[in-house]
Amino acid sequence: xxxxxxxxRGEGAVRHPEKRNxxxxxxxxxxxxxxxxxxxxxxxxxxxxxxxxxxxxxxCEEAACPNIGECWxxxxxxxxxxxxxxxxxxxxxxxxxxxxxxxxxxxxxxVAKAVAEMGLAHVVITSVDRDDLVDGGARHFAEVVQSIRAxxxxxxxxxxxxxxxxxDGAVEIxxxxxxxxxxxxxxxxxxxxxxxxxxxRYFHSLRLLEKVKDxxxxxxxxxxxxxxxxxxREEVMQVMDDMRSAGVDFITIGQYLQPTRKHAPVxxxxxxxxxxxxxxxxxxxxxxxxxxxxxxxxxxxxxxxFARLRAAxxxxxx
Length: 318
What we know:
Elements: H1 42-53, E1 57-58, H2 59-62, H3 68-73, E2 79-81, E3 85-86, E4 96-97, H4 107-118, E5 122-127, H5 138-151, E6 156-160, H6 170-175, E7 181-183, H7 193-196, H8 202-215, E8 220-227, H9 233-245, E9 250-255, H10 272-284, E10 289-292, H11 302-316
Parallel strand pairs: 2-5, 3-4, 5-6, 6-7, 7-8, 8-9, 9-10
Antiparallel strand pairs: 1-2
Helix pairs in contact: 4-5
């Protein structure tokens, strides 16, 4: 067996190389800084009822987000469109894989109504990968954005899209729907793509982010990575540099958490101090906005962060 050398030796280190890719390996115990309370509030129940009544899916539930209790208690939810079944099987993701159902043509209108009922000033829309569709679901994404605009003209819209791999013209359709923020996550360092994100290509994702800026320079772009999969500090900084080369405005950095024993294991729990260090480095590299903490997720505090993002651009005079 090859030896894995832990160069970090941080407080949260988990060194169990023999457990990689073993579905019977126990989930690692989370450190104190990563634990959250179970959702029980009245606001949580109200948000769940709105989502259920509109026959919608949320990434909060499907991806087992640790922040669901906090966000739903405030009636904040990230809508996941185009169903609950993904055509890919990423090793980090809890969304189920299989053959998806046909698109729900009522979904754009139902999402818009849910946004209105929740009174959202800022909404995040994401989706499963739909490699089965000719355009990867790009037109459906655009219809959702347009429906929200029609019903909630004051609401700002952030989208978190798949990569539309091998779908010529798809990303342009989504850009032209004019969301306020275009987010596409790189997820991890390129070295891990084959094992963690096998259906994607690192440089294709970078090019997608670059295309957004090429087509609409004023549109905010955002991307995120998970840490704790075994990446080095140097690899994280290289991903930052690649994002900045593509013109990304906003980076999110959060701790990877293993959803089930069948998913990629956590190699290390990165400490809050290290996340703070990554934030300092990212700001020095020129990102307008940085969210870096163990519980950071793409849509966590998205509304507040968008306000800070706009303020940061205004302060720079861009």
